[in-house]
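Researcher: We plan to redesign the surface later, but first we want a full-length starting point. Tokens attached.
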């Protein structure tokens, strides 16, 4: 079976686009790490702890059997 010149041209185009796509990603710039999560101010943390503690106390009061 004889191959056609168009088949070689197709493979050349596919290879060129593949290599070009792979190389285009090499120059991407930007952060190469994940930024640190923001830390909440201490007042907000204390408020959240108080809310959680009061909710915990409320559930203990309603779930205890007499």
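Model: Full-length starting sequence:
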């Amino acid at each position: 079976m004889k191959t056609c010149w168009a088949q070689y041209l197709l493979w050349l185009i596919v290879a060129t686009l593949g290599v070009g796509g792979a190389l285009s990603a090499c120059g991407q710039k930007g952060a190469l790490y994940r930024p640190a999560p923001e830390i909440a101010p201490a007042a907000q943390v204390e408020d959240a702890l108080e809310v959680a503690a009061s909710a915990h106390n409320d559930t203990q009061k309603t779930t205890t059997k007499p």
